[in-house]
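Lecture 7 notes: from sequence to structure.

We start with a single chain of 659 residues. Read the sequence below before looking at the structure.
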Amino acid sequence: MSREGQKLDHGDAGGVGIGVLSLDLLGQVIDRLREPRDRKACRLVSRAFERAEAAHRRALRALRREPLPRLLRAFPALERLDLSACASLDDASLAAAVAGADLAIRRVCLARASGVGWRGLEALVAACPRLEAVDLSHCVGAGDREAAALAAAAGLRELRLDKCLGVTDMGLAKVAVGCPRLEKLSLKWCREISDIGVDLLAKKCRELRSLNISYLKVDNGSLKSISSLEKLEELAMVGCSCIDDEGLELLSKGSTSLQSVDVSRCDHVTSKGLASLIDGRSFLQKLYAADCLHEIEQCFMSKLATLKETLTVLKLDGLEVSDSFLLAIGEGCNNLVEIGLSKCSGVTDGGISSLVAQCSYLRTIDLTCCSLLTNNALDSIAANCKMVECLRLESCSLISEKGLQQIATCCPSLKEIDLTDCGVNDAALHHLAKCSELRILKLGLCSSVSDKGLAFISANCGKLIELDLYRCSSITDDGLAALANGCKKIKLLNLCYCNKITDGGLSHLGSLEELTNLELRCLVRITGIGISSIAIGCKNLIELDLKRCYSVDDAGLWALARYALNLRQLTISYCQVTGLGLCHLLSSLRCLQDIKMVHLSWVSIEGFEMALRAACGRLKKLKMLSGLKTVLSPELLQLLQACGCRIRWVNKPLVYKDS
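Now the structure, written as tokens:
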């Protein structure tokens, strides 16, 4: 329990004194407790706190469907409900949970809840008359009937249907007619929607402020329809290959309210099209044109300069640039807070120096794979962009500790830095340790980083939440001991191919109570003992990768089955586990939704069969050898698919060792 929780627990003394406080005041106290375990502790020791939370709680994230009916009735003031990780959720369980209720819920997230169909959505909409926002993204089986069910929510203002592959113009028409007050709509990857559906949407939903039609097979006709939306502020059309300059010109003749436009990966868009779009858009703040422009023309540059006062974000990834071009951006757009030049050829120290000399407000600078840059570029950034918070330098192999010393000294607000494949060493980390606000540090493929460098970071970067040490092969158990001692807030940790790590190192990681994502691929020295340490200590673990951890056996799976109750994604390919361990694991982990189990050569066909039946109804994604397709019972495979499980078959030989 954290210090705040301990104080409240001690001061309550069985509820004496707490009960005289109002529910509103107790609710405000609960809001100030940052840790979920502290809120739970207060509920357990004081009925007054329990009543206060019941009346005050506004958000809920359910991991299992069984307690859902009780939770919805226990917290009548709920406004936000997240069911995206609710294992085995289907129409029947959702309908039962909301049956006969009049809920105050306004926002519901059902992303990847592939078991929910139109019947469940109808029940949800009927029980939530105040519903304003629904996220149904990545429910690949959702189609027009699901869209029609949502259309009954007349007050809906936000809707995400990303990758709902069955939604067509008919379903979109239902939504457009039934939800005229829509303000935000995302249709990304809904490939069955055409210009006809978009045209009707534009006619019926006049309040739209944000629209995403990325990867739709629409053409310029859709942009003509969209141009009539007078309140539209954000438009994303990434990967719309049928849209060209003519479409952007049609868009430019409509509303002038656009503030953000994304034409990334639109292959037929050129500088002329972007110039026509910018013309007259004096309020444009964000322009994303990654991987679409083949060359920069003067017409685009001259129009870009007209956005000098408003443009804050400019992403031009994959473009061929020059020093003069970067100078022009600096002179014409000196209010930029984010610049994206990832994989741009021709980016030099001189060009970056010219850019940052004019753009002192930059907070995010993406220079990924700009391989010509040296420490001189970092010196310029440090001298001019003292408020920079995010610096991406992956594969900038010519930089060294000298340049990073300047960044660390002059940029105290730095929160994220990506040095993947930069070859930096412990001396560089010694300098970066000055950045006490650092949250994200990526050091993948930096083989010169050792325990010494990790100790520097651990000593001063206590706010670190993500650390990538992929293939940092000099890291040992001692480095992990320092990390666990100094960086208690780490949530994401990548140790793949750090093959000097043993069970001793994992025992140190067991103290990281906030750890949610852990990648241990190809740590050949760890065993079930180390996995037990992780499972027992890291109760919040959600994703775990053990691929090619050849010595991990059933002991590790038994520990995960008993302690890692929140685990949702697991990779155990090539591990030395048996059918018994696999069956126990899959039957015990009620939240597990995604498992990769390729080349489990000690698991028999019967072992796979029993394990999969034990988890049927909960699994959403499954990865196995294609050879199993012909030996597993057709009835089991049909049952898995009927429950919404997507199976990825790997075309490699099936190897089975009879134990």
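The CA atoms of residues 415 and 437 lie 5 Å apart. Keep this in mind for problem set 3.
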